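User: Predict the structure for this protein chain, please.
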Amino acid sequence: MSKPIILVTGKNGQLGNELQLLAKEYSQFDFRFSDVAELDIANEQKVNSFFEEYKPVICINAAAYTAVDKAETDKGLALKINAEAVGYLAANCNKIGAKFIHVSTDYVFDGTATTPYKEDHPVSPVNFYGESKLRGEEEAMSKSPGTVILRTSWVYSYFGNNFVKTMLRLMKERESLNVINDQFGSPTYAADLAAAIMQIAVHEKFEGGIYHFSNEGIISWYDFAVAIRDFSGLTCKVNGIDTSGYPTPAKRPGYSVMSKDKIVSTFRIQLTDWKESLQKCMKLLEQ
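Assistant: Here is the predicted structure, written as structure tokens:
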């Protein structure tokens, strides 16, 4: 008898790669990992055909357009991947009764809060990337009301391009670095996010709605960089600068810390301190 199928999109990204590592722990399922070469999620016809043929019981959408600054000018593509494609996946999940787990972002908030954002806090993105991800949330919920939306933040991994790898590279090349010290949030190790997603996917009580997930702790990018330097034993001097000293095409929220109470109480997800997870990832990178 064939095993139930889990479709995971975005297999070449940080989260997609972490989910591939985790798949062997869930041998009761047949995983189908896809990226644009295997399944173009922005092509409605192809998505419909895939669902008709494979009938996945769970769809995890780890695909996204994540180039925050580029999204300011590349709006069409950002919308296509972050919103329209989400609608196609959600509609198909709804049609066959599949569970849909969609990954979103802290950038749906404007960053003016002073205490961690709860899931029902009013959304107001300050850049187009955040806007496109917000529209994706709306598409998911309108086409498949039982969707689990996971908002996450500051994702890094052994795989792909991310802040941790960039810092390590620059710290080896330079004697000093300027890093922003007035934007606050919580890092997320993609391996922890992948584990949380699978825990939710197989949970006996799959309860749709919006949830927040990140590692524990509130830090600035500067704090993050200093920890990366200290854990790696590098000697690069890290200078804290404010946002005005580092202008970017897309505005960033100044504070995007999210409350994780809901995901903990609903799915019994265990949260890890950001430093503990960073050390785990850096050990892998050193090897």
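Residues 75-96 form the longest helix (22 residues).
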